[in-house]
Amino acid sequence: MCEYQAKHIQYLKNHLLVHKDNSEVQIFKCETCEFETKYAGALNRHLLNHKDVSEVQMFKCETCEYQTKQKGNLKTHLLVHKDISEVQMFKCEMCEYQTRHRRCIKRHLLGHVNISEGQT
After folding, report:
1. Is residue 114 part of a domain?
2. How far apart are CA 38 and CA 26, in angstroms?
């Protein structure tokens, strides 16, 4: 299938859902909006969007006014306060683009795929 490896079996089980069609797995749906996902954890994180800030734990940046309902978002935000020499940079092998965020390089690389497909 792919080269994904995990230290924990649960991570591997979650990853395997990537390779399955939605018709083959349980879909978790938000009762408030149209959001749906293959991942229970993703639904739980999503549900925080519908809660008032007074109902959930807020994660606050100690350097600026940023705050979020999700710990992972704070972890990502904290990178903006670090010097570029202190963080791992993700670099594009096809151009000069670089970023502090893995999700951004993945999205950027899709642009190169679309461009190359359009030229064929």
Report:
1. yes
2. 6
